[in-house]
Amino acid sequence: MGITASILLSIFVALLITENYGYGLWMISRPIFAGPLIGLILGDVQTGLTVGASVELMFMGVLPIGGSVPPNAQIAGIIGTVYAIEANSTSLGISLALPIGILAQFLIMLAWNINIYLVHKADKSIKEGNTRKIEGLHLAGILVFFFVFFISSFLAIYFGSGFVKSINDALPSWISGGLEIASGLLPAIGMAMLLKMMDFKKYWSFFLVGFVLSVYLELDVLAVSLLGLGIAAGISAIRNRDNDNSLTPDQEENDNGEKLIQKKDLWKMYGRSFFSMATINYERYISLGFDYAMVPILKRLYTDKEEYIDALNRHNEFFNCHPYTANIVLGVSAALEEQKAKGSAITDETIASTKTALMGPLSGIGDSVFKATFMTIFAAIGAGLALNGNILGPVVFIVPNVLLNVISRYLGIFWGYKFGVKLITKMKNSDLIQNFVQGATIVGMMVTGSMVVNFVKIELTAKWVSAGKEIVLQDLLEQIFPSLLPLIITLLFYQALIKNKKAIYWLMLVCFVIGLAGKFFGIL
């Protein structure tokens, strides 16, 4: 393929794949849909259908749950289709899909790490209350993903399959492995920041409960969240069993108060939510995207610059949730901020704990229901049709997913806001505020304990032979105290953040040093 054609095709490919993080997560870059699209451009729709469907089936169980970055199905399907059509060999495109997907894994890791720089630049802009710069830095994440995908796609398309194989083979294992280890450590910084916000010294026991439930009973974040909710509700019920704190329907209806947030503000937040993952990174995930979506609400509520800056800081902490269900948290946060602006007893800790408590179960719903179930069902149906040469295969896949994207985000914003208003109204007119703060913190602490197990990854590789038997150090640690290293690292990071507010900068460097050095010396 000529250089001009390669550049134009690479631009299209980069724009297509960037949707996975940069704008909307519309599923248009999935192999089942992107394959035929590339085939249409290159004049061979049937090969696009076959390769796209085949790669979709290959990667159907490989999903980026939480912060994991598995072999990328999108790039694998698109570049594999290009190779298949260029070489006139469907089998070639399909066979190259896996190495392409593995190499793409590192490209996405690179983009996530570059975004850490943007997030830290945005921290300074937030302190200045510079909204335009904050927005510009966040949206710059789209360009990061675009250029990473464009350059890699151009090199892969122009130089062909030989280039992909040579790069994949030539990359030193200690560098690629070290970056992967560092990526597993960086979430510990975000976990430590959450512990700092939610009064770890007072509620550490619930953090431990969440950790133990995930380690020893292997419960996921959703299960731990539900248990946390049950524990918090039980404690509240016991404490208030002699008091009737409920409000009558008339009380709730008559105490909604004046609304500060207008419907157009919620629509603006809805539109911005499609760009929430533009600066996704290993340290705070989509914290800046959450802030970006909240800007219209915060500007409406806080005309005082200092209050506005404080509000921006509140929503710039670690946040990780499926982008479709994250809008519920946005809606509830808008309601909380509105009541805080009106003078209600809503503290920073209340908002932080509520967000943390909600993101656990909502992440579980998004990942398990939307990704692992909803998308997979329609992908399987669409792939079956596409393999038979039916052009409706991609349509069967894309239409339900686009509708799910649009509707779930809309309901999340508007229902979340409505629910939040009612919740805070009841709290404001009763003595439930203290119980709510405590309950949210309990759930948040348990969720954080569970997330340490699920997000922070580090394993020792040291082993030796004793009495003719191989002894693996990591196995010994797991037998004594599973996930001990992730726990220790998170708590050490927490202590560092308590002692030094700027510790976050060198903690990030520590993660990379540990990863690269550990892999180079064969320790990790």
Automatic annotation (TrEMBL):
<keyword id="KW-0813">Transport</keyword>
<keyword id="KW-0762">Sugar transport</keyword>
<keyword id="KW-1003">Cell membrane</keyword>
<keyword id="KW-0812">Transmembrane</keyword>
<keyword id="KW-0472">Membrane</keyword>
<feature type="transmembrane region" description="Helical">
    <location>
        <begin position="369"/>
        <end position="388"/>
    </location>
</feature>
<feature type="transmembrane region" description="Helical">
    <location>
        <begin position="476"/>
        <end position="497"/>
    </location>
</feature>
<keyword id="KW-0598">Phosphotransferase system</keyword>
<feature type="transmembrane region" description="Helical">
    <location>
        <begin position="207"/>
        <end position="238"/>
    </location>
</feature>
<feature type="transmembrane region" description="Helical">
    <location>
        <begin position="139"/>
        <end position="159"/>
    </location>
</feature>
<dbReference type="Pfam" id="PF03609">
    <property type="entry name" value="EII-Sor"/>
</dbReference>
<feature type="transmembrane region" description="Helical">
    <location>
        <begin position="503"/>
        <end position="522"/>
    </location>
</feature>
<dbReference type="InterPro" id="IPR004700">
    <property type="entry name" value="PTS_IIC_man"/>
</dbReference>
<dbReference type="Pfam" id="PF03613">
    <property type="entry name" value="EIID-AGA"/>
</dbReference>
<protein>
    <recommendedName>
        <fullName>PTS mannose/fructose/sorbose family IID subunit</fullName>
    </recommendedName>
</protein>
<feature type="transmembrane region" description="Helical">
    <location>
        <begin position="171"/>
        <end position="195"/>
    </location>
</feature>
<keyword id="KW-1133">Transmembrane helix</keyword>
<dbReference type="InterPro" id="IPR050303">
    <property type="entry name" value="GatZ_KbaZ_carbometab"/>
</dbReference>
<feature type="transmembrane region" description="Helical">
    <location>
        <begin position="96"/>
        <end position="118"/>
    </location>
</feature>
<feature type="transmembrane region" description="Helical">
    <location>
        <begin position="436"/>
        <end position="456"/>
    </location>
</feature>
<feature type="transmembrane region" description="Helical">
    <location>
        <begin position="395"/>
        <end position="416"/>
    </location>
</feature>
<dbReference type="InterPro" id="IPR004704">
    <property type="entry name" value="PTS_IID_man"/>
</dbReference>
